[in-house]
């Protein structure tokens, strides 16, 4: 039996960022503990990091105006009011 390792996180948005995420301030999410390789990486996968988290949030939770959350390359956060905490649930 194969078990995929995951991270349970609580994401909290403030400063207007929550408007981009369906006007919901707090989200409990589960993401994979490993992220797929990036174009600049020689490894097939890597530990989940903030870059992976931002991309995951953009692809799975963001409801509108992605240009206000990440830059045009999808590499940086344009707005900075969010908090990430590891949860045990």
Describe the structure.
By secondary structure, the chain is of the alpha+beta class. The protein has one domain: Ubiquitin-like (UB roll), CATH 3.10.20. Helix content is 12%, strand content 29%. The strands form two sheets. It has a three-stranded antiparallel β-sheet with strand order 2-1-5, with no helix packed on it. Strands 3-4 form a two-stranded antiparallel ribbon. The relative contact order is 0.27.
* Intertermini distance: 22 Å
Relative strand content: 25-35%
The number of distinct helices, counting runs of at least 4 residues, comes to 1
Structural class label:
alpha+beta
Helix and strand pattern = EEEEHE
Brief write-up:
The protein is α+β, with helices and mostly antiparallel strands and 89 residues long. The chain is built from one helix and five strands. The longest helix has 11 residues, at 50-60.
Summarize the helices and strands and which ones pair or pack:
Elements: E1 6-13, E2 26-32, E3 34-36, E4 45-47, H1 50-60, E5 82-86
Antiparallel strand pairs: 1-2, 1-5, 3-4
């Amino acid at each position: 039996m194969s078990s995929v390792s995951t991270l349970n996180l609580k994401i909290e948005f403030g400063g207007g960022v929550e408007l981009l995420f369906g006007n919901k301030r707090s989200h409990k999410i589960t993401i994979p503990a490993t992220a797929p390789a990036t174009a600049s990486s020689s490894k097939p996968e890597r530990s989940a990091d903030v870059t992976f988290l931002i991309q995951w949030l953009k692809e799975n939770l963001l409801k509108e105006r992605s240009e206000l959350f990440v830059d045009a390359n999808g590499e940086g956060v344009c707005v900075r009011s969010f908090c990430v905490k590891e949860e045990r649930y």
